[in-house]
Design goal:
The structure is a homotrimer. Chain A is α/β, with parallel strands linked by helices. Chain A is built from five helices and 38 strands. In chain A, the strands form six sheets. Chain A has a ten-stranded parallel β-sheet with strand order 7-10-13-16-19-24-27-30-33-36, with no helix packed on it. Chain A has a ten-stranded parallel β-sheet with strand order 9-12-15-18-23-26-29-32-35-37, with no helix packed on it. In chain A, strands 8-11-14-17-22-25-28-31-34 form a nine-stranded parallel β-sheet, with no helix packed on it. In chain A, a hairpin with a 2-residue loop joins β20 and β21. In chain A, 59% of the residues are buried. Chains in contact: A-B, A-C, B-C.
């Protein structure tokens, strides 16, 4: 990242974070945030995990956001700034630094002359529309939102105020996106759900007549696909965060403040509760329900409803391939192994 | 979904479906399709699965498509319309309702002035091309097809009549797509297959000189990637339905009327038969063959050819994480467990 | 693929490959490359694998690149051209054939009048920019590179010379791509990493202030997502090859000449060594390290660092579903099975 043109003191950063500098100098000058590994003098870093203690010990950062417990890992040249949650403190510091950096040259604001905005579209004050974007009839873009180059906003779609839609996103007609959304490039919202009825070995398409409703302060990564509902809407609750390449099928409902890591697939009509965390590449089958506060490990498949908050995993452990060739075969033989165990138990009982 | 401006009678819907109203009134007025949960008076719903019997019991739908066996689940206020296959009947009703609704405001037809159509491209009668679409030289678009905004159709590509290519789809040069295709936004057809030969630890690209041939009445979801063949074509048979975020590698061949759910990956030169159903997130390794009428469960990996129609699964079951930590370790120890079992069997035999 | 207008002799191809025609005629005329299956007289094919021996025996190819050991599989009508590595020889032949075919009609060169190139962008000599592409302020495109239709190159991004960026790719601001890159349609480079800190059950976005640095001669398939770093850069080394629909999270570093098959997901801050091969759909968890020369099987999950080169697998084997229903249950019961085994061992020891 770029350096601030005018450094700030550690005391100023501490004030921003609502803490005090309890060790060393208040006056250390900070002009950049950096990772422990790449930090140079003048940089502020953070240490969040004892696994990185050794790395911290060699850091050249001038100051480090750290818990009391991990502060001893730091070298004499790195002054600790003690906080309860270094990652959260870093997030807040990063948001402040970003606000001090010069703005994005790509969004100069206003409607680019090479954009195509239908006469029946309604744009709020201060809306920016990038080159080659297409905004169809009846679409509404809320105040202060930025629509990137190449974005297509379908007829009748609504995007709330303060949202940022990155280049080449596609939003189908009549979808609704709340305020302060961030949607990254390549993502598609409102494509038809995968609905077909079988008739004599062929598939008959079921029109997908519902929509997509996305709450406030939702962020969706790159190249995701969020299908419109068959009859009802697909719903993503306020504050949800979706990483890249995620598939959300029709009629899925995700509760507020849930987070889905990259490559997750959620099948039709599944319901996910609030504050859930779904690991990368995990799958959720359709027509089931996951209660609030459930954590699913990466690449695990949820095959039935979960009604108890907790941490769930279903992954075959990684083995050297030659060992896997043995264990894999034996997984198939588990029923026979159990049968042999039963037989032995019977014989042993008789022999007693 | 929107209501019809002029309601129809249940008798009219029954006629459309080729059945008769055998209970209650012929004259009930229907103006909308709705799910059991969101239905209001005036709505027609469907009940397909005994798991939803309780939901059906509380529905406010005026009428419900249902089998004889499940009709008893309905409340007195919901009149059953008895059909053999409620899901298929619903599909047909939905298709009819959709045909009655006002058309898509986004596709007004004709070639948008902000589209770029090469002079050597050939467009059939009634073709619509959206704003910012690019149709390169030598491409052919069949009669009545609609090309969405931002779509790129490469040089020499052919799209059959009556097809609908949604916004921001990319079709590389010389690919062939049949009639009545539906391709959703973000999908890429004809990118280079992943072909490299190794030479002294580096990868030498193998030019991908084949194409992609997609049959008639194929639907492909959002953000899929279908690679062109290395020498021969990648082929997707008539009537296939692909969900979102699917990877089809070079030289894959998929038989007619197969359906692939979201996030499936099919590796190079795999052949999938007709009427197969591949569950979400499943993987198919390359250079193998799957016969007709095979069903693969979600997130299962097909590692060798399948020559017998049937239903196949390979998924580690989901466990509470603390249980998984035990079972996961034991999977690694299966060979030792079998060894211990053998030793016990030997000793028990001796002791007899 | 198309035939050459003027056929070449087998001797000419042999010379190109640095080998000699040791059997049959030097003068056989070749006008096309083809697979064993689709080859016709006048075609050159290759045989790389004994599994395809039967197919080779029926091929109509006039000549076949083949090892000494497999040459006996060929029919009398197919003349062997003996090479050490038929796949590599085929790659070289294909590259030569491609160079002889007429060029891509889509890229006529120059800047299309419907492209939007900011006045502050710098384009090298011979750069082609397709219709509807957008190149923002401060971006640099190296000499001879081709930017496809609909591509968005963000402010300050740098693309090296001789690169080919296919239609509808999105490159965010300030990302750096080396020379001779190939990036396929729909791919997104430089979207925000998935970084959020939790505060009272809500997610606070951490600005992603790093970039993406992609080395020379990298190929990236369709619809991939490569996130920018949080503070440092996400780095993809020289000569890496990425297939389609791959997720690369923030701060990942991939060593030179590694290859990732389709649908792979790599979580944040993971480091992958040089010359690794990651199978399709595999997952790599974050904050771990994989050493050089590691091969990971398809759909396997790497959950901890790997410090020994080798071949690793973690996949539940595919079973007929009714067998899986038994084995799946027993995986859960492994701890009890081990307990029963222990009890039997104790009893057997006592009984001795």
């Amino acid at each position: 990242m770029r350096r601030l043109e005018r450094p700030v003191t550690l005391a100023q950063i501490a004030e921003l974070l609502g803490v005090r500098v309890t060790r060393g100098s208040q006056e250390i000058r900070i002009s950049r945030l950096a990772s422990l590994e790449s930090a140079q003098p003048g940089d502020l870093s953070f240490l969040n995990d004892s696994r990185y203690g050794a790395l911290a010990g060699q850091s050249c950062a001038s100051a480090v956001l750290v818990t009391e417990a991990l502060a001893a890992s730091l070298p004499a040249t790195s002054q600790p700034l003690i906080v309860a949650d270094p990652y959260l403190a870093f997030a807040k510091a990063a948001r402040w630094f970003e606000s001090q950096l010069p703005g994005d040259r790509g969004h100069s604001g206003g409607i680019h002359p090479a954009a195509t905005v239908a006469s029946g579209a309604r744009l709020g004050g201060g809306v920016a529309v990038g080159a080659r974007a297409v905004i169809e009839d009846g679409a509404e873009i809320g105040e202060g939102s930025a629509i990137g180059p190449g974005v297509v906003v379908g007829a009748g779609a609504i995007i709330g105020p303060g949202s940022r839609i990155a280049a080449n996103v596609t939003i189908y007609g009549d979808c609704v996106i709340g305020r302060a959304a961030i949607i990254h490039s390549g993502t598609v919202i409102g494509s038809d759900g995968f609905g077909f009825a079988r008739e004599s070995g062929r598939w008959l398409k079921i029109p997908q007549l519902g929509g997509v409703v996305i709450g406030d302060e939702v962020e969706i990564g790159a190249n995701c696909a969020i299908d419109r509902g068959a009859l009802d809407d697909t719903v993503i609750g306020d504050g949800c965060k979706l990483d890249n390449l995620i598939q959300i099928a029709h009629n899925v409902r995700i509760g507020a403040h849930s987070a889905l890591a990259g490559c997750v697939g959620v099948a039709g009509s599944a319901r996910i509760g609030e504050r859930c965390m779904i690991g990368g590449g995990a799958g959720i089958l359709g027509h089931l329900e996951i209660c609030d506060d459930v954590v699913i490990s990466a690449m695990s498949l949820v095959m039935s409803s979960i009604s108890k908050p907790g941490f769930y995993t279903g992954v075959f452990p990684l083995l050297e391939n030659r060992d896997w060739e043995k264990s894999g075969v034996l997984v198939r033989q588990l029923p026979q192994m159990r049968q042999r165990l039963r037989e032995l138990e019977r014989l042993t009982k008789e022999n007693k």
